[in-house]
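Support request, priority: normal
Reporter: lab tech (M.K.)
Component: structure prediction queue

Hi team, I submitted a job for dolichyl-phosphate-mannose--protein mannosyltransferase from Nyctibius grandis yesterday, and the status page still shows it as pending. I've pasted the exact input below so you can check whether something in the sequence is tripping the parser. The sequence length should be 758 residues. Please let me know if I need to resubmit or if it's stuck on your end.
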Amino acid sequence: QICNQHNAEAPNLEQAFHRMAQAEPNLDHDVSWFLLPSYWAKMVVALISFLCFANSYDGDFVFDDSEAIINNKDLRAETPLGDLWHHDFWGSKLSSNTSHKSYRPLTVLTFRINYLFAGGFYPVGFHVINIILHCTISVLMVDVFSILLGGLQFSNKGRRLNLAPKTSLLAALLFAVHPVHTECVAGIVGRADLLCALFFLLSFLGYCKAFRENKEGHNFSIFWVLVSVILGAIAMLCKEQGITILGLNAVFDVLVINKLNVLELIQKLVHKDKSLENAGLLRKGLLFRITLLMSGGASILYIRWRIMGTGPPAFTEVDNPASFADSLFVRAINYNYYYSLNAWLLLCPWWLCFDWSMGCIPLIKSVSDWRIIVLAVLWFCLIGLICQALCSEDSHKRRILTLGLGFLIIPFLPASNLFFRVGFVIAERVIYLPSIGYCILFTYGFSLLSKQAKKKKILAVAVLGILLINVMRCALRSSQWRSEEQLFRSALSVCPLNAKVHYNVGKNLADKGNQSAAIKYYREAVRLNPKYVHAMNNLGNILKERNELQEAEELLSLAVQIQPDFAAAWMNLGIVQNSLRRFEEAEQSYWTAIKHRKKYPDCYYNLGRLYADLNRHIDALNAWRNATVLKPEHSLAWNNMIILLDNTGNLAQAEAVGREALELIPNDHSLMFSLANVLGKSQKYKESEALFLKAIKANPNAASYHGNLAVLYHRWGNLDLAKKHYEVSLKLDPMAPGTKENYNLLRRKLEQLQKKGG
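Reply from support: The job had stalled in the queue. We restarted it manually and it finished. Here are the results:
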């Protein structure tokens, strides 16, 4: 509400506060809650929001953090800063067919700054920034809620007044401790939502500042309106939802600045009522401001569209099954069911999961499904709230309910599947901004109950209990986000039908070397989703390593049949076929993998091994050379080239390749060892010795390193050192091939020398 200050001699701020507060019902009047000065209220909110998520500060990189941060080349100093503006959130070119089109360059820039300041991928700095951002946003919410719940009024000195200090504190606390925010705060990729929310709120507060000097209801600052549009653009460059603040600013202008009755306005527009001319739309500049907001939003969207390209993002059926349903009815029913589940997560955030796709929520395919009732409940509540927001005679009630519904629904629209297909079923991170609307509605409901309740303190204690439960739930959920093992296992009880959950648990176990347990989870993932090609590929890999080649081949063959362009599965199938000595099929599989992934150094490496087994030495060398061109640090490919050239007597060429490899990978002890062998055969004993010793220093427990150095000393005539290293080699590996025979030869030679000397 705008205060019309005609008396320049208002006695003081307190009197002005009371006079303006009487203009409409005060939400705080009947609420039994803490009344704190603004500074202390913000301190309390900051402290409690910090306590909720503090235990996530030293967590690992988990789930999507690997792709968005560790594997994202845009974070590294060698990547030009300009590339950030042409790449998506994951570091892929926006023009690529595989890009998800998530354009968030400012978020990636903050990751890059984190990486550069930390000097590497150390997660603590990333987590600390996320916690600070959430605390900052929660503090800003005190001001935002004071405007949304109490109205917009200023003192004579242009200072904004907080007409709802108690309810704004309660709403800010509800926001600060909501467990559904854990994914955004404890998961580092949630930085996108946090930065978006920060600039989203700053845009709203900036828009409110446009009316600070408003005396007669028609003066406003164009500068602050434009600042609000720019901040909205910055919010969108952090995450796509940010653009929705421009729509919310327009809603706020209509309801709070102009105090328009939306239902009456619609009726007059429908009936072309001439009284519209007296509605004050032009006098108060509403149409001009709406035009500025719409023009700014349209310009931002156009620029983003030009950068992103016209192609839609590529998602699969497992990401969002409902969006691939042939029936419009099935799609509509399931979308609405997803909305109801999002609403339930806001109301009761107890069952939280890092991923809700892949069968976690089975599709509703007929009206006989009992879950239809949930949709009916959702729309019954929404329609009831909308009717009250439009038709209530209480203007205060209309304003708060409309703003609450606006902040609940409008920021959620980009994730609603209404305008374009999204790559998820439910994502807790996208509820971060809509939870503002939930907090408004919850707080307003609490004020209404307080007005009716005789024992207001009991009601206040109940709400305080909800806050304390949420704090504990946040702390527990934050601890689950500290490591992938805890995060993935926590999802098993929430989404037991989610194949991706079982896949991730299996992958985590496999990475830790527990293959037997990993097989169990991979099999369950394939059972739940018989088309889950990544689970088939990983399971096939483990079975291949366990020499269960027949089943491995069946799984990998099925994977490439389901997804013919799955390059990794084609390569692994080639490895299995090679092990089964079906060389022609293996070669064909390798080339198919390379066809679908042009830059595939590991596949060229395996192709080289196949050619080496077939004694096609030139082809093998060419394949390994391709691998090193695509990946200069591919140690195995360099080693195999050196060894093959050594074994075929091309010592000069082997030496040249070895020196080239060590220039690129100077600390690789296996390359030192291979080159040392070549130099020894070329009778460059001194240089060979230096490389052997350097390799042994890097890996002192390698029996072959000591054994081959002993052979070098044996040839060189340094028999005592040869004897020493033979003995070390045999101690490390008593069954080392050839070493025992060479050692026995040396001993006999030493005995003969002793006899001659005697």
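Residues 321-452 form one domain. Residues 1-23 have pLDDT under 50 and may be disordered. Let us know if anything else looks off. Ticket resolved.
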